Amino acid sequence: MPDFQTPAEYFKGRDSRPLKHFGQHFLSQPATALKIVQSAQLSAGDAVVEIGPGLGALTRFIMEQAEKIHLIEVDPAMVEYLRERAPAPKAVIYRQDALSFDFKSLSAALGKRLVVLGNLPYNISSPLVFRLLEAFPAVDRAVFMVQKEVGIRFAAPPGSKDYGVLSVLLGIYSRVRKLFVVGPGQFLPPPKVDSIVLRIDFALDPPAGPGFDFLRRLVGKAFEQRRKTLANSLAGVFGLCPEALKNAFEEAGIDPKRRPETLSPSEFLTLARLLGEASSS
After folding, report:
1. What are the residues facing 200 on neighbouring strands?
2. What's the pTM value of the predicted model, to 2 decimals?
3. Residues 216-227: tens digit of each pLDDT
4. In which element (H, E) is residue 186 found?
5. Which of 126, 97, 101 is nearest to 114 (CA)?
6. Assigned fold of 7-202
7. Rounded to an integer, what distance in angstroms lies between the CA atom of residue 241 and that of residue 162?
8. Quick one: pLDDT at residue 236?
């Protein structure tokens, strides 16, 4: 079985280069790759999924720690490369866009929650996290490297300029930790910005109240025009009359003149529960 190659080794002598439309920036430092994998605290029996394994920077270390690994890779050239180095039955390779992958079905088939890792292309980071939230509770934890600016938004606290829809939803369904920053020089080709490694530990049980779709719609509506007050941005939400919305604010103890970035995830959850009850009555 061939060894995993460095990005420089792979592209040397090949009439190819990293593909911009796939957002490819290949991690070239094994020590950083190992540190990312160690951050997931894998055990042999974990159901491990790697997104965008590429040339296997993380894969080689995951294979040492997990009995089996599921690899999601959209680039056909990378798929062929991985088949030579991560063969069945140790690895299952899906030639697929991770944004269309059915995490719920895989979790159900394996009978356990998933551990997801990946050096994520910058253009799919936010949509993929939404995808994992939609799949709750199929995922136990995730360790991702993302663009630093995006990662800061994921972990942003209430009241900060980076606090937004994903900050709230992740605050309701998970705990996000910023682990360490990775500079552009560790990639081939180097990106123009720093990256950051995050660990996301998802809750074991769903929060009491309405489901994810309801929460996403409510929070999204609140942040559509973040300078508006909640009373204005949520006017008419879910077809509720002004009186029902006013009553929900009062029962939640939330001033309707507040702006969305001042509400904590738990306050959004309380408001969603009350609005859900009002919309179904």
Report:
1. 142, 176
2. 0.94
3. 999 999 999 888
4. none
5. 101
6. Rossmann fold (3.40.50)
7. 31
8. 85
